[in-house]
Amino acid sequence: MQPKDGGATLLWVGALMLGISWPTVILRVIVRSWKRNFGKDDMWMVIGLVLFTVCASMCMVTCFYGSGQLSKDIPTADRLTGTKIYFVLEFFYASSASAIKCSIALTLHRIADTRRNFVWAIWIIVALCLAAAFIFCVVVLNICHPIDTLWSEHPTGTCNMKLDSDISFFFSVVEIITDFALAIMPAILLWNVQMKFRVKVSVILMLGMAAFASCATIVRLRFLSNYSNPNEFMYAGADIATWSLIEEGVGICAGSLSALRPLLSIFGSSNGPSDSSTVSASNRFAGSKRADINLDTFHQIVDSVVRDVDAESQKQILKETEVTVTSNNRTTSPAEWHENQVLGWQNKSFEP
């Protein structure tokens, strides 16, 4: 069947979310590997991406079996096959949503490593996400007895579709609560960190953008009651699946923004003049000394261009000189220095 109505929308949304989430996570892995800072939060995000890919792919497949259309317009064989696919993908949805939340929570855990109250709160959120996913999967497995009654052409058992709606409401509420908790926590964690206010706000927004995923979850709530009619499972599933994919796709991208922050420094430095003359390392060192910079270790790289012209070609050789300045004064605590490494920004304090 050709995708129509809600099925066509689901197909395009699935393709869009996959097209955005995969490059985002790949860049995240590259940046973290480049910074030698790959951690458990990155591993959980990769797991979440894989599970989300399976979920989105199955949603897109259902579009060709009548997703978003009334049962009277769908051939019986297609309707039963599509219903079976929808039933299976619910497990991948719950698993991927929990993995994404765990990744975001573990990112905050790396920042709050020395603050016991925050660490306990983060572990509670992780446990809540995993427990909700486990309960969801167990309950969905018990909706029908026997389990194939939902997609059997000649059913012999019974299904409690209200139970499917209830457990979906429960899981969505847990998702909304954890989303808002993970959105508020970065502001509390970073409020007293010594850094420029503009940078602080940008980092807080990056870490808190995962809350936008809860907006899709809230919209998704209004469609969950459609599960109550087993005969129109394919029609009801399209809208629910669409907002589920938006929720997880936005969560993956928003949860990876803070890890991509080091890329901003690369793009920012590329805005400067590219064809500059040779700069003396000693002059820059003197300037930094006059500024009285209090840092543990400050690396200054001086680029000089040496041109060697021969009869046939012109070669440009880039030389790199590294100067290390060490100060005995320390303006940042070990915990704040660790936060800087995780978030990818540098904390500089200047004394007059």
Structure explained in plain terms:
By secondary structure, this protein is mostly helical. The protein has eleven helices and four strands. It has helices at 6-34, 40-62, 76-111, 116-141, 161-190, 197-208, 212-221, 233-256, 262-269, 281-290, 334-343; strands at residues 144-145, 158-159, 297-309, 314-326. A hairpin with a 4-residue loop joins strand 3 and strand 4 (314-326). Residues 269-330 and 346-352 have low confidence and may be disordered.
In short:
The protein is mainly alpha-helical and 352 residues long. 62% of the residues lie in helices and 9% in strands.
Search tags:
2 domains; single chain; two-stranded antiparallel sheet; 352 residues; mainly alpha; disordered C terminus; Rhopdopsin 7-helix transmembrane proteins
Please outline the helices and strands.
Layout: H1 6-34, H2 40-62, H3 76-111, H4 116-141, E1 144-145, E2 158-159, H5 161-190, H6 197-208, H7 212-221, H8 233-256, H9 262-269, H10 281-290, E3 297-309, E4 314-326, H11 334-343
Antiparallel strand pairs: 1-2, 3-4
Helix pairs in contact: 1-2, 1-8, 2-3, 2-8, 3-4, 3-5, 3-8, 4-5, 5-6, 5-7, 7-8
